[in-house]
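Suppose a colleague, Dr. K., hands you the sequence of a protein chain of 373 amino acids and asks what its three-dimensional shape might be. Before reaching for any lab equipment, you can write down a predicted structure in token form. Begin with the sequence itself:
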Amino acid sequence: MFVVVDCMGLVEQKTVVVGMSGGVDSSVAALLLREQGYTVIGVFMKNWSDEFALKGECPWEQDHMDARMVAQQLDIPLYTFNFESEYKDKVIEYFFAEYKAGRTPNPDILCNSEIKFKAFFEKALELGADYIATGHYARVQHSAGKYLLLKGADANKDQSYFLYAINPDTLPRVLFPLGDMQKSEVRDIARTHNLKTQDKKDSQGICFIGEVDLRKFLSRYIHDQPGDIVDVESQQVIGQHTGLSSYTIGQRRGMSVGGTGIPLYVAQKDMQQNILYVAKGNYNPALFAQGLTATDLHWLVDRPAMPQKLSAKIRYRQTDQACAIDWVDDTHTALRVVFDEAQRAITPGQSLVLYDDDVCLGGGSIADTFAAE
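The predicted structure, expressed as tokens, is then:
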């Protein structure tokens, strides 16, 4: 049991509010904390409703029911926090603005920084919580008076990439019960305790929304114009795209171009000319860049000295890539990152996340790429 003995010798039990999404990870997180002796309160965050959703594509009602059934199994209360307004203003507006500008955003990162570890965190503390907890595969380490965000022990499930932009001041009050576990262990625990969510598939798609047809979803808010598809090498028009916003760098599907005999991949988008440039073959040089610039920087630690050799990820589940980082200029508002090995499909709008071994240092939004000098 997790207890604290105060100066009067009285025992105080700590309260943790767990974000329960209706998935197996948050279900097991709540179970483990209860078994450790915390007073556990479950909270389901309602951030997306049928007002915004496409018919049949919003899973929140089923997720809410699953979370409630697990809470009943664990004999803990479950409350619902409604953050739809915050989610729309902070996440959805950003999501569509980025796509409209030709970038490919990562809403899960903003969802964590603005909803789970801000709106939810603040509301939980207002209710008297000592801690909040989620089912993320990440760890918090207290070292030399500082709290550090570390990768999860399961390299295949590590979610520190999605957490680089949270406020570091929250870390002393955050628990990640699954951080030292493998996903297979989590499934085994759920089955041992016969939790309702034991065999539920991991969520995919957009945070709190689920799997949607992205092109159809974007078309409700962004009215693209068709344009030319151009071979980046020959500069010849080889087809027509349906609108640039729904294409992303490195994408293969959805080109509607036949007869080449070689797979085509998105290499570049010219928003001003409304041209989609494609490259033939998965390893075409046009798909690779040696470096990038990153803006909208966020640090979880003291800003590192520059220049610096570190490792980085430019997408979730990517293996760490060795790189050299330095400031773009004296304003210290943008990073220049040069990789030891050229990277495929570096995508503006996605996130660069920096690491020193297992410690997540912070990161920023990819603004542009450049070739080797």
